[in-house]
Amino acid sequence: MEIGIAGVGRIGKIHLENILQRFPDIDVTLVADPSEEAAAYVHEKNLNFSYNYEDIVGNKEVDAVIVCSPTNTHADFVIDAAKAGKHIFCEKPLDLSLGRVKEVLDMVHHSGVKLMLGFNRRFDPNFLKIKSMVSSGKIGDPQILKITSRDPGPPPISYVKVSGGLFMDMAIHDFDMARYIMNKEVAEVYAKGAVLVDKAIGDAGDIDSALTTLVFEDGTMANIDNSRKAVYGYDQRLEVFGAEGMLKADNNFPDNHQYYGTEGIHGSLPLNFFLERYTTSYLNEMDAFFKAIKNNAEMPVSGDDGLEAMKIALAAKISIRENRPVSLNEI
Ligand SMILES: NC(=O)c1ccc[n+]([C@@H]2O[C@H](COP(=O)([O-])OP(=O)(O)OC[C@H]3O[C@@H](n4cnc5c(N)ncnc54)[C@H](O)[C@@H]3O)[C@@H](O)[C@H]2O)c1
Predict the structure, then answer these.
(1) Which of 25, 48, 96, 194 could be disulfide-bonded to 164 (CB atoms 3.0-4.6 Å)?
(2) pLDDT surpasses 90 at 178
């Protein structure tokens, strides 16, 4: 299979390195990125490079594209790739406008190409295990899900301004995780948000802390706790409580040593951020993408999954603005 990659910033580099090292039967035909830094990086790897994404789309050899460029390019890039008959892996989110996402999904659907969205956490070994145990009925009917998702530090204000906000940029992973673990749709969203970390985030029109309650169609619930700054590192935990028991996934640590001293017992801080914490998930999601193409199977994360998570994010925004629970039917 021949692929093209658009954008080799933080996440694009992860996917490119994974493909080069772990997928010998995948050829990286072309990498496109307008930046000089990217050009130097790609040339160092002896790969073909272009400053223009159109060169990937126009390349007849390319079977699939991996879109890792900034969010505001995703919708156009996905449409162009679909028109050219190329399968697509696109980083989240597809776009910040619901109307535009629906337009893109319609277009992709009619083109017949496969589209996978980059909700990588579904492929994390901790959460995969919990998902499979919930699905096999180990804890009976799941009733309450709790997700803790806190970053080690906020992104630059320039990023905050174009990110779509905490719900669309950060919590969207947690909204997808909630749907994935509970395996049902969200009916209602009630969110509270605040600026507790950095006033500049508030000045930029966003929040940096949030508590969101999701009520699923059958009355079961999830609670999601987000912060842009946890001083002890990347805090990614999950707990599902069911009629027959409870399942939980703790943080991952670089090692499991413990130091016993006069002031207590101490260990390492959690792995610092997504690039370290979710290494395996990025590898697994690429594997799933390539396998779905080779086996002509359904993509494990669809464009519709992206749409549903986005609707929850939009409902959470409205909930804060209007200080009320918001039904997903309103979105
Ligand atoms: N799934 C995840 O865990 C995860 C993590 C980080 C980012 N993301 C998503 O990935 C996307 C990229 O984020 P990032 O943090 O890697 O950003 P980044 O700024 O580090 O990298 C973006 C890259 O895209 C390049 N680029 C800009 N315009 C382009 C164009 N027209 N064509 C091709 N390349 C272009 C930039 O030069 C840069 O190299 C965002 O949509 C973000 O939401 C997902």
Answers:
(1) 96
(2) yes
